[in-house]
Design brief:
Layout (H helix, E strand, L loop, with lengths): L1 H11 L13 E6 L5 H15 L8 E3 L1 H11 L18 H6 L10 H15 L2 E4 L3 H4 L6 E7 L2 H12 L3 H23 L11 E4 L5 H31 L1
Parallel strand pairs: 1-3, 1-4, 2-3, 4-5
Helix pairs in contact: 2-9, 3-5, 7-8
């Protein structure tokens, strides 16, 4: 939470930032229940903050609870992102373009979450966990999308250990949570979250330590972002000349 607040202070205190020339990357993480994001998050933030030279202020991770607090405390949806309507289907970008000048009469939690996620990724160096983040930001050029998966047995074991519950109860939680997340994405994004083509990287966390997973994601993201940056500057200089 402290890291999140520091991130917001440093970004929101800046007088302005360009929406046209940003090359600072962000990251969305979709995960199966029990795939280990709870133990991967901190190593990932620390690793990116250490090795990424695109930021002066470090990285920050935002999960569902934190996004809710941002909506309550910082009014981020009132800033630069477009308005969204409840039946907007991501990643159909045309749907976004059609509502740029429309203010819906009734906001939903998804509307606020989607706009907040887009703003955080616009600022850069943000890790967004869940909430269909990869679909909400599918048109954002410098946002990298990761999916964490694992065998049911390992995910049940991890969930049981984390919550100190029985294997039977953990299995019920894992299966129901996966169903709920899939239904959420299907409803609001009109997509199958298990389709690997919606992600730049899919990682099986079964036999990899959290620290190694963090480095795999971090190195892949930064290499991808570097190529994106090179492509941008080539296009920019070509347009200028």
């Amino acid at each position: 939470m402290e890291r999140m607040e520091k991130y917001l202070r440093t970004r929101l205190d800046q007088e302005s930032y360009s929406t046209e020339k940003r090359v600072t990357p962000s990251l969305t993480v979709s995960r199966q229940c029990g795939a280990g994001m709870d133990v991967i998050g901190c190593p990932l933030v620390d690793y990116l903050s250490e090795v990424d030279d695109s930021t002066d202020f470090g990285w920050a991770l935002f999960n569902q609870g934190m996004i809710g607090k941002i909506i309550e405390q910082h009014d981020l949806p009132e800033s630069v992102a477009p308005f969204l309507v409840e039946d907007t289907k991501f990643p159909v970008i045309e749907a976004l373009e059609q509502v740029l000048n429309l203010h819906p009469s009734e906001w939903t939690l998804f509307n606020y979450s989607a706009v907040t996620i887009r703003n955080l990724c616009q600022m850069g160096n943000a890790i967004i966990v869940g909430r269909g983040g990869n679909f909400v930001t599918s048109d954002m050029r410098y946002t990298f999308h990761v999916r964490l998966v694992g065998s049911l047995a390992r995910r049940v074991e991890h969930t049981a250990d984390r919550h100190k519950i029985s294997q039977k109860r953990a299995r019920e939680i894992v299966i129901e949570t996966d169903k709920s997340r899939k239904k959420f994405v299907q409803r609001f994004a009109g997509a199958d979250m298990e389709d690997p083509t919606f992600y730049h990287l899919v990682v099986n966390t079964d036999d990899i330590s959290p620290e190694v997973v963090a480095r795999v994601i971090g190195d892949s993201l930064l290499e991808w972002a570097l190529r994106r940056e090179e492509e941008f500057y080539k296009k920019y200089h070509a347009d200028v000349s």
